[in-house]
């Protein structure tokens, strides 16, 4: 499981760098799930939304499922407003929910000993 926390303002150049780094990490680690956490991103414009979706699609081509977490109400409005189809994109409200889902996908669980 890879975790990609995004923090701060993300312009198109940074979004492209993040996407390239993510795909490189997936290739190096053979990760099966990546959690993309946008809790720390105050604003997502249409360009950044496009890069996020392309990164998720590219990860899928590499055999890695993506879970997008931490979507604020404002960002949700932007993403819906640009017409992004979320029917094939896994989203969870929080990082905790995303991690639980990722563990479930891999048939792992956390147990207290």
UniProtKB/TrEMBL annotation:
Coiled-coil stretches: none
All residue ranges annotated as the STAS domain in the record: 1-102
InterPro entries cross-referenced by the UniProt entry: Bact_StressResp_Reg, STAS_dom, STAS_dom_sf
Gene3D superfamilies per UniProt: STAS domain
Protein name: STAS domain-containing protein
Species this chain originates from: Kouleothrix aurantiaca
């Amino acid at each position: 499981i890879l975790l990609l926390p995004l923090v701060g303002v993300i312009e198109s150049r940074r979004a492209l760098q993040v996407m390239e780094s993510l795909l490189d990490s997936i290739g190096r680690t053979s990760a099966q799930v990546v959690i993309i956490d946008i809790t720390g991103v105050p604003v997502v414009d249409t360009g950044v939304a496009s890069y996020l979706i392309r990164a998720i699609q590219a990860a899928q081509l590499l055999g890695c499922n993506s879970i997008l977490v931490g979507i604020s109400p404002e960002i949700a409005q932007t993403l819906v407003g640009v017409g992004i189809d979320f029917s094939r994109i896994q989203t969870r409200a929080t990082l905790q929910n995303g991690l639980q889902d990722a563990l479930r996908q891999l048939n792992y669980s956390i147990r207290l000993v």
